[in-house]
Amino acid sequence: MASLMVLAPLPxxxxxxxxxxxxGMLTIASNFGIAIGPPxxxxxxxxxxxxxxxxxxxxxxxxxxxxxxxxxxxxxGHKS
Length: 80
Hints:
- By secondary structure, the protein is mainly α.
- It has one domain (4-77).
- The longest helix has 29 residues, at 19-47.
- It has four helices and no strands.
């Protein structure tokens, strides 16, 4: 289940008419990460001979990329 910190800003990011769509997209993204994340990380570990540092650097870069995208959505959402 999605965290409260993830769901709480959703009404501020998406239009009220698209709240259901936003929640659906959030659920899809969350489930995709749950399903694909561990096997992809394991494959990365196998490829790099067990180097966890590279895997966590990639995860950090993905997180930063998502933050940049969300910042762009928030900025666009406040324009009239």
